[in-house]
Amino acid sequence: MRKTWRDAVWEAVQRQSRKNAAFTRQQLIDRELDTITKEVGSEGATPAQTLSRILQELRDDSVLIFDGGGRYRVSAGLAGVDVETAVATEVQRLQNCRVGQSSFRRRLEARWNAACPMTGIGDRALLRASHVVPWNRCESAEERGSVDNGLLLSALWDAAFDRGLVAFDDDGTAMFAARIEPRSEHALRQAERLALPLLTAPLRERLGRHRMLHATMGLRRAL
Fold this sequence. Notes:
Blueprint: H1 5-20, E1 23-24, H2 25-40, H3 47-60, E2 64-66, E3 71-74, H4 83-111, E4 127-131, H5 141-144, E5 150-154, H6 155-162, E6 166-168, E7 174-176, H7 182-188, H8 201-213, E8 220-221
Antiparallel strand pairs: 1-3, 2-3, 4-5, 6-7, 7-8
């Protein structure tokens, strides 16, 4: 029985993930495209474009993560499962995340005294409960809900942190990505402080993982 493109690409992704953990689109084409076309029984007019389309679909389904350095990796906990099981798992994770978000936020508010530690903003409508390690990269449900995997940030700082334009060093000092626009950096620098207080060892470790995710951004210390 011939495989669908979706199944064949996902299995190729799994093979590359076992070998290298992370890989680029071109590496997948070079190493796996011939195998994929044989498994589906047809190259089609533009097989490389078809592979790219399936990669985008898998990203949209959150079972495949695209790193800033142009590399892909399988979402945590999905190694060795078929694509439909992987998608169903991610859907359930997202539902659980939404259910637990209110509790996660309340605990972050208690931890950070209901205010952004950078700006001092305490208006709840302008605060975001930010995961340090994204939920689809967390190694367990416990880590996803841990107060040591969260920051309570104002909307601007949250958006910058989520996209890797801002990170934090081991001592809590803010770091700015090389590609951040000068006006955006200037706005962020108007904060009351440019360093996080009250770092625990688990939070410091996760901030380090966040930096690694965005290492290609060329981070530099604010102070």
